[in-house]
Amino acid sequence: MAKKNRIIGYARVSTLEQKLDRQQIALKDYGCDIIFEEKVSGKKKQNRPQYKQMIKMLKEGDMVVTTEIDRMSRSTQDLIHMVNDFKKRGVGFVSINDTWLNTQGPMGDFIFTIMAGLAQYERAITSSRVREGMAAAQAKGVKFGAPRKNAEEVDAAIERYFRREATAKQLIAETGISRTQWFYHVRVEKARREEADKKKKTTKKK
Q1: Beta strands in the chain, from DSSP E residues, in sequence order
Q2: From CA 152, how far away is CA 139, in angstroms rounded?
Q3: Which residue among the candidates 14, 75, 127, 178 is catalytic per the annotation?
Q4: What CATH class is the domain 7-104?
Q5: Residue 81 pLDDT greater than 60, yes or no
Q6: Mean per-residue pLDDT of the chain
Q7: Among this protein's residues, is 178 annotated catalytic?
Q8: Closest C-alpha to 56, from 150, 99, 48
């Protein structure tokens, strides 16, 4: 006899005063074999014991069901991470009221892929803006990070690095700064140079 795949429900409200009745009814109507319930804020998963217990018991072929996305996840990034983890385990995920989100259906899988792509694009844009802001501030003389003991020596070493006259390992040993500090200053200098190049190109077009 073939083993029946389990349908596992998860219900959550943020405070003790709120009721789980509506979620319980919806999950039972969906056919959940087990329902995990808790009354706790969803901001941090480590503070959600029932959620952690559910994750521990998941097996390949299981289906996790919730009534709304925000019962399980509080951000797009968190949702993407969670669903990817389910996929690796061979576990499906359905949000009853968010009908597009069914990872075992082609449409839900397609939309989720688009969401993941948009989230990655958003991260890239944010990172680019941070780099541009740092470069602009650096050009105005703003210093980032802890003060450098041998600023002139480090500046000279970074210049040699960009000219490919020595390796990062050699220059880190020469300057005596940590790898973290070294690559931080390299990133700042790279951003400054990229910003300077953009300005030159803009000037030439004019």
Answers
A1: 7-13, 34-39, 63-66, 92-95
A2: 16
A3: 14
A4: alpha beta
A5: yes
A6: 78
A7: no
A8: 48
